[in-house]
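Quick one, tokens below:
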């Protein structure tokens, strides 16, 4: 498996506590290492929801939601597992085989219900993931809009791009 260096994109932790959303940049190591992302998210102290959003190299995104019983994951393109360690790690955790290298279809893997309690039901998340005309950052912004934290996410991603 080849890893493209450096991995470009953003990793953002999202927290909802007492009805308010907060977004904060995660360490760039989260873009290449699922364990690093999960560890950083677990350190977020909150009585509310905590999840991570990774947009990797304009190729795919990952949603990560730690819980006491495990981690809910969603990978927008399982084919990314052939080229990116973080995507391969997601597939491994999900116990999903990567697609055949000759398969050009894009198919997601993971839990489409992971944000349902935050205002994004499974069918809507499926529609966003299935829109292959959007870049991963655009898909994540749509998710943020549906859940109600687009402004907070936009502020963080703008700072990261400077």
């Amino acid at each position: 498996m080849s890893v493209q260096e450096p991995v470009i994109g953003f990793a953002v932790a999202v927290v909802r506590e007492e009805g308010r959303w907060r977004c904060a940049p995660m360490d760039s190591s989260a873009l290449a290492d699922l364990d690093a992302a999960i560890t950083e998210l677990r350190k977020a102290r909150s009585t509310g929801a905590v999840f991570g959003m990774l947009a990797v190299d304009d190729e795919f995104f990952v949603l990560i939601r730690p819980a006491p019983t495990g981690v809910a994951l969603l990978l927008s393109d399982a084919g990314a597992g052939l080229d990116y360690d973080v995507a391969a790690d997601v597939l491994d955790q999900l116990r999903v085989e990567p697609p055949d290298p000759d398969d050009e279809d894009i198919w997601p893997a993971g839990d489409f219900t992971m944000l349902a309690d935050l205002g994004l039901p499974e069918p809507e998340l499926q529609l966003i993931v299935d829109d292959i005309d959007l870049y991963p950052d655009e898909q994540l912004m749509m998710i943020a809009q549906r859940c109600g934290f687009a402004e907070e996410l936009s502020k963080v991603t703008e700072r990261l791009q400077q």
